[in-house]
Amino acid sequence: MASGAAKAPSKIAKLLSISHDKDVDGLNSAAIVRRYAKSKGLKHEVILTDYGGFEKVFGKVAAYRNTLIIVTDLGMDETELDKVYDGLSRAIAQGCRVVWLDHHQWSDTSAKRILSLGNKTVLKINHEYCAAEIAFKVLMPRDEISEELARIAHDTDFNHREIEVANALTDALSVIRFGALDRREDLTEALKSLLTSLADEGVSGVWDEPTKRFKDSLLSKRIDHYRKDRMKKMKKALAGHNDIEIHERLVRILEMPSGVTTTDIGTFLSNPETLRVLGDDLRVADLLISVSQGGMLGFRRGSERVLCNGAAGLFNGGGHPYAAGGEYGMYDDFQAVCDDIALTLSKNTDWIA
Ligand SMILES: [Mn+2]
Questions:
Q1: 228 CA from centroid of ligand 1 (Å)
Q2: Which H or E run includes 145?
């Protein structure tokens, strides 16, 4: 990876950071970008967003002048490409520069279009790292706090779950996000104080290692409550599961409870210990499919005998072999959804490893 790719030209005085609001990788990427802005003496602004929010965000971007725009942990879907391109090209015509750092799957069309923006636009996509690691390597390679933020993001993004504070940050993010969504508050505002503390002081700014608690005791309590509630909901969802044997693979489909992430339920269901404790005598399924109320599908796996991206591809989606997302559409009858999914999976072997 080239270093120093994002050196700010002299007339650039401001940095706009756009990152993913949904996970620790997006948050920590934004924290690293904030550290970078500080190190360059650039005024810093941040917008945290999710897929579906691009039109609004890049519409705003069109008004920026002489700003270094750094986008992290967001893939570029072709359906939103025109709006993103329009916003960024107007910004560039007003003296802005664009640096886009990501690790998702990009189509050639999307990548070429973003690179064609001009004014030395930088686009770095590397699937081997999480976005925070790319931000660390490209922007702040000698910064210890950025290195730590990247390491924590990697632990959550690759679902290793080996670092306690990484799990805690994931849950903190969920608590803050779900709370803000419920109250229809702006997510960037809701996440700003966590982001600022992480950027200014690193993990030790928010987390007390000896007690394994957040320094913000209210946040800690909200997380305790959230974890208990989540366990209850996941047990209930498991009770309503549907198991189907397809191409000699055990496929388990269940309805996603609200306020629980696909990763949470995937981790919960791929742990044999959890299933044993519940006493249901269930074995871990090869393929886990969660169906959200809006008809979105989450794919996770309990063995390497299946490819989540292959399965998601059959439902207008994609992702990685170990985790992917797709779309079913609105539904009323869960059993009918299960039958439908089973039929599609049985007609195709793209998801068999
Ligand atoms: Mn990511």
A1: 26
A2: helix 144-157
CATH of domain 237-346: 3.10.310
Residues forming CATH 3.10.310 domain(s) in the chain: 237-346
Quote the ligand 1 centre to 124 CA distance (angstroms). 13
Residue 295 to residues 140, 166, 257, 266, 314, Cα–Cα distance (Å): 40, 29, 12, 17, 14
Ligand 1 centroid to 167 CA: how many Å? 15
Q: What is the mean pLDDT of residues 249-261?
A: 92
> Average pLDDT over the chain, rounded to whole?
92
Distance 311 CA to ligand 1 centre (A): 21
Centroid of ligand 1 to alpha carbon of 257 (angstroms): 23
Q: Report pLDDT for 158.
A: 86
Distance 131 CA to ligand 1 centre (A): 5
The topology under which CATH files domain 14-214 is: inorganic pyrophosphatase (n-terminal core) (3.90.1640)
> What confidence tens digit (pLDDT) does each residue in 132-178 have?
999 999 999 999 999 999 999 999 988 888 899 999 999 999 999 98
Q: Who contacts 27 (Cβ-Cβ below 8 Å, separation ≥6)?
A: 19, 20, 21, 48, 153, 169, 173, 191, 194, 195, 198
Tokens of 264: 């949470």
Which run of H or of E encompasses 240?
A: none
**Ligand 1 centroid vs 279 CA: distance in angstroms?**
35
Write down the pLDDT at residue 2. Answer: 47
Greatest C-alpha distance within the chain: 65
Position 10 confidence tier, pLDDT thresholds 50, 70, 90: low
In sequence order, what are the residues at sequence separation of 6 or more whose Cβ sits closer than 8 angstroms to the Cβ of residue 118? 89, 92
Q: Could you tell me the distance, in angstroms and rounded to a whole number, from the CA of residue 29 to the centre of ligand 1?
A: 9
Report the separation in Å between the CA atom of 54 and the middle of ligand 1, taken as the mean of its atom positions. 16
> How remote is the CA of residue 352 from the centroid of ligand 1, in Å?
25
Cα 68 to Cα 16: distance, rounded to the nearest angstrom = 6
How many angstroms separate the alpha carbon of residue 75 from the centre of ligand 1?
9
